[in-house]
């Protein structure tokens, strides 16, 4: 892949993706070197731009107050002199992205963009990492509510002997303009992801739990569980199958989805295996692209905020490999996630950490896809096996992970030790699953409010039974 094409594909992920990483157990993933094979080296040193929050930090939600993201720069080696760099607004980057991906994103007006220190970045003589630079977007009458804009930024160097990586010299932040839509963000900065099994439960129950101190919803993301990936015999292809319960929820989005979004929550659709030989981890590259296109059509049609993936119940080894499928593994799974994020850069891509998300070698997604790290196309990942797994996927920080999730199947039960561990070790989210109606889950959800948010949980007193 030539450098110019790398630049184009690099744009959607937030910031430069080809950095070789240090150990993934620290609270912040610090790049230790640059993948020189992807860059044209100029002089004795090169530098690259990256987003320390990965995919989760690439989309900014603009409401009625300014919103900020941040970038950093890493050098291939200490320069022995102060390195002066500058981040500049460059609308041509977004034009390249639109041309490469057949999209039509408009740019955030330059008048609404504020770069800290006017975009100036400094790397000291004996270090390889800059301080973070804040990128701020202000509300503006020129930004339409309900629209996603691109904020294209390019890195330049003013220091002799220090060049800029041609494949990691730029980034695009995706700015979703939400207007008066409230934020669910709580003081600790962590988020809570909630699965609702819609075959038997009403997702509106997620509305009825909040935090006492600030009256914000307890849940930040609600995953509708689940649509399926299946072989569609009459069409001779792998596709998305919506059972009658999922179809009803989507077809009546104004009743079941919009109220959650109006409260500030993001709503995603989970994709789950369904017992045949197809699944999220055995699609060919072309089939992955087609499946991602089908998912984009569903997300856009029903006004969803993203797609969640769960590699369970696919009987990979019990069926012959069908057209569009390959031998199952972590790499085909990562390819699908990449294709979904490429088509929907402003939407969530999240992963339940099971199946081939672990990989056959237990190392997870430790490969790059078209030069992009998984941490730059996966927003969040989480497990429900207690505090057993550390950060596995290349390029993901602890802020994008959750461990020790909470099973809501049995009312009144909780596991506060796992919840406490999750926060104490610096992970960024808490996952709960199988939310039901009623007050019987106040004890475990109270533990989430207490140990994740230093707060108390409040139940509204309303229950929503399955009414379809």
Output the keywords:
single chain; globular; disordered N terminus; 468 residues; alpha/beta; 9 helices
Folded structure, characterized:
The structure is a single chain. With 468 residues, the protein is α/β, with parallel strands linked by helices. It has 9 helices and 24 strands. Strands 13, 15, 16, 17, 18, 19, 20, 21, 22 and 23 form a 10-stranded mixed sheet that branches. The protein has a 5-stranded mixed sheet with strand order 7-9-5-3-11, with no helix packed on it. Mean pLDDT is 88; it is low at 1-43.
Which helices and strands appear, and what pairs or packs with what?
Layout: H1 3-10, E1 19-21, E2 31-34, E3 45-50, E4 59-62, E5 67-75, E6 83-89, H2 92-101, E7 113-115, E8 120-123, E9 133-137, E10 148-157, E11 162-164, E12 170-177, E13 191-197, E14 209-211, E15 221-232, E16 237-241, H3 244-251, H4 253-256, H5 258-262, E17 266-273, H6 285-302, E18 306-310, H7 330-343, E19 348-352, E20 380-382, E21 401-402, E22 406-407, H8 416-424, E23 429-433, H9 442-453, E24 457-459
Parallel strand pairs: 3-11, 4-12, 13-15, 13-23, 15-17, 17-18, 18-19, 19-20, 20-21, 22-23
Antiparallel strand pairs: 1-2, 3-5, 5-9, 6-8, 6-10, 7-9, 10-12, 14-24, 15-16
What is the helix tally? 9
User: What is the residue-mean pLDDT, rounded to a whole number?
Assistant: 88
Let me know the largest β-sheet: 10 strands, mixed
Low-pLDDT sequence parts: 1-43
What share of residues are in beta strands? 25-35%
């Amino acid at each position: 892949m030539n450098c110019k094409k790398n630049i184009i594909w690099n744009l959607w992920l937030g910031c430069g993706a080809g950095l070789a990483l240090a150990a993934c157990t620290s609270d912040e993933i610090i790049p230790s070197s640059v993948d020189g094979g992807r860059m044209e080296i100029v002089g004795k040193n090169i530098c690259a731009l990256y987003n320390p929050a990965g995919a989760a930090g690439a989309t900014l939600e603009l409401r009625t107050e300014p919103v900020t993201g941040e970038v950093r720069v890493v050098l291939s080696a200490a320069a022995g002199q102060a390195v002066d760099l500058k981040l500049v607004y460059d609308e041509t980057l977004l034009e390249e992205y639109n041309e490469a991906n057949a999209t039509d994103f408009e740019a955030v007006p330059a008048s609404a963009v504020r770069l800290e220190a006017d975009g100036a970045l400094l790397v000291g003589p004996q270090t390889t990492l800059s301080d973070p630079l804040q990128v701020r977007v202000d509300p503006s009458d020129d930004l339409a509510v309900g629209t996603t804009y691109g904020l294209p930024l390019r890195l330049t160097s003013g220091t002799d002997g220090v060049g800029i990586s041609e494949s990691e010299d730029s980034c695009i932040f995706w700015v979703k303009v939400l207007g008066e839509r409230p934020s669910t963000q709580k003081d600790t900065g962590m988020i809570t992801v909630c699965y609702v099994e819609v075959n038997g439960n009403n997702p509106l129950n997620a509305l009825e739990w909040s935090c006492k101190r600030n009256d914000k919803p307890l849940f930040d993301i609600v995953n509708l569980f689940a649509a399926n990936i299946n072989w569609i015999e009459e069409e001779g292809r792998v596709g998305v199958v919506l059972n009658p319960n999922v179809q009803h929820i989507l077809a009546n989005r104004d009743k079941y989805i919009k109220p959650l979004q109006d409260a500030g929550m993001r709503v995603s659709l989970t994709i789950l295996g369904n017992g045949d030989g197809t699944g999220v981890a055995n699609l060919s590259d072309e089939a992955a692209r087609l499946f991602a296109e089908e998912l984009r059509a569903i997300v856009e049609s029903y006004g969803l905020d993203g797609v969640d993936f769960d590699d369970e119940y696919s009987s990979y080894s019990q069926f012959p490999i069908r057209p569009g499928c390959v031998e199952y593994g972590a790499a085909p799974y990562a390819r699908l996630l990449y294709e979904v994020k490429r088509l929907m850069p402003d939407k969530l891509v999240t992963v339940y950490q099971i199946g081939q998300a672990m990989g056959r070698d237990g190392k997870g997604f430790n490969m790059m896809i078209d030069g992009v790290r998984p941490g730059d196309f996966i927003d969040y990942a989480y497990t429900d096996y207690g505090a057993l797994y550390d950060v596995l996927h290349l390029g993901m920080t602890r802020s994008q992970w959750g461990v020790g999730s909470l099973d809501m199947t049995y009312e009144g039960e909780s596991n506060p030790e796992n919840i406490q561990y999750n926060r104490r070790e610096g992970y960024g989210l808490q996952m709960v699953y199988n939310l039901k109606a009623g007050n019987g889950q106040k004890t475990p959800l109270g533990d989430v409010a207490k140990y994740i948010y230093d707060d108390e949980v409040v139940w509204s007193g309303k229950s929503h039974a399955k009414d379809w």
